[in-house]
Design brief:
The chain has about 110 residues and is α+β, with helices and mostly antiparallel strands. It is built from three helices and four strands, in the order βαβαββα. The protein has a single domain, classed as Translation Initiation Factor IF3. Helices cover about 40% and strands about 35% of the residues.
Length: about 110
Amino acid sequence: MSSEGIIRVSTKSFHSAYVNAAKVCFKTQSEVQLHGLGEAIANTVRAAEMLCSLGYATLVKFETQTLSDEDQTGVQRKRAKVVVTLAKAATFDSVAAEFEKTRSATKK
């Protein structure tokens, strides 16, 4: 996660980790971008869908890109990338507070 609200999604963590990262980002910023490359696209889309369906964010833009990279042998390879731009939902504060309340009640 960076200060510009960009979260680089990978396959090394579950999508819920990126949901939590976005929630932390939304506490200080009004917009967050989730970037997923290659196989991480599925995690990116899942995290964005969860944030929207749970009331934390609204979808601003869904963008796909094709990147060209040279591998070690010098051959050009194309890779898919997705960038999902989300805006902090008007319901963010109340939904986040309700989640924390429920979470603390289940820890007791």
